[in-house]
Amino acid sequence: KVGWYNAVLQPAFHLPYPDDTLAFVVLSTPSMFDKALKPFVNKERLKIIRDPVDQCVSHHLSRVKEKFPDQRVDIMFDYELLPSRKPKFLAQTAAHVAGAAYYYQRKDVKLDPWGKKKIFGVCIHPKYGGWFAIRGLLLFPAIQVPFLEQPAPVDCVSTEEKRIELLEQFNFHWQDGRYRDIIEVKERYSEEQKAYFATPPAERFRLLGLSQETQ
Description:
The chain has seven helices and five strands. By secondary structure, the protein is α+β, with helices and mostly antiparallel strands. The protein has one domain.
């Protein structure tokens, strides 16, 4: 429910819907690369002008919207910004309140070792660890669900030591991706997918066989 999200944030970040409004947080799993992105690129090769992943997600969520012709469905993407340059929604907070993934933050560590350093939080999924992404939000403004019970996210990094290790790795060594394996995972990104996301965005077109002219 939108109210779960708004309840944990300052008013400046609230979503402008009644508290009982139904919302879905959309995640992409490791198999998205082969099952969705590559087929999308092959089919839409000449229409890809921005980031291929963003366009792929937009394409699939638009298709979901088409399945509900009699409903208003509002879509927010993780990459969208408001005119104020704030994100349209805080993806990690949304995932946490929906019970999809646990958002580990500095406040989850009792004996904080970082002093005045800025420490960013990170979501960990009980099945995929850090090998997933939060892609968007689907909102159904006409559907009110006062009866919906809030599921707690799975606290899969439950020891103080592991939480410190997770936040250290994410904040200071994120490039090597070790934080993604803070727990035992069921599935990871393929080597091809790792290489894709490790490549600067402007050079990713080449990896997918797209020319700069297409870009």
